[in-house]
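Support request, please re-run this one:
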Amino acid sequence: QSMDSTLRYIHNDSDLSTNSSFSPEEERKSKVQDVVPQALLDQYLSMTDPSRAQTVDTEIAKHCAYSLPGVALTLGRQNWHCLKDTYETLASDMQWKVRRTLAFSIHELAVILGDQLTAGDLVPVFNGFLKDLDEVRIGVLKHLHDFLKLLHVDKRREYLYQLQEFLVTDNSRNWRFRAELAEQLILLLDLYSARDIYDYLRPIAFSLCADKVSSVRWISYKLVSEMVKKLYMASTPTFVVDLMNELVEKFCRCHKWSGRQTFVFICQTISEDDCLPMDQFA
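Re-run finished. Output below.
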């Protein structure tokens, strides 16, 4: 009963900083569970203590971060309160390799915890990773669709405004970052409405189609063709008509040969993938 009351206290809407007012006894109770031997869990949690990690093994925090989804799965979401503080400690670790490890597995942890705990405890960490180093951001980007599909529709729409930021990287030569963005946007088309696709994803797709690296452009042609297909099937026909008019204006009539070539390649992809009926294509 005391554990349940502590859990309710931790997960209510009060400011999380009030957790520091817990007495040592309450802190200890909040980490009690009956799934695995308590001594084993205590040993695992103690390994993430920053002072200990520095003196014993600098890699230990990374190993703890790698194992955390497995520990969470074993304990079950009802015992997440045992791991929450440790997860937040690791997510703010000074070593980028630790944060990168967590970024690559946050979508798995979201599946384990369910939508409520994800919204309350993982989304703030996820938002932090979005502003991190490219080495950390790529972990979030590679599984962007996997994470966003678990969020409530309203929460998911908030990220539409941030997708543009993935076009900016620490190193402009990091073209694989932009290629991954194009791949993820293809998957994200299923999560958003026709208006959201037209308003937010279309400008990013057009920017990627004009990328300096051919590998990025080829994935982007596929992205635009899938966008045409999605908008054609939408209930409002104006979006796909406007999109096709813009393709003609921006690429077909481009004064650079590379822009006109892009138009041909997009037409090829639309045709090959049957994204439009042929009369509409014509």
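Confidence is low (pLDDT under 50) at residues 5-21. DSSP finds 16 helices and no strands in the chain.
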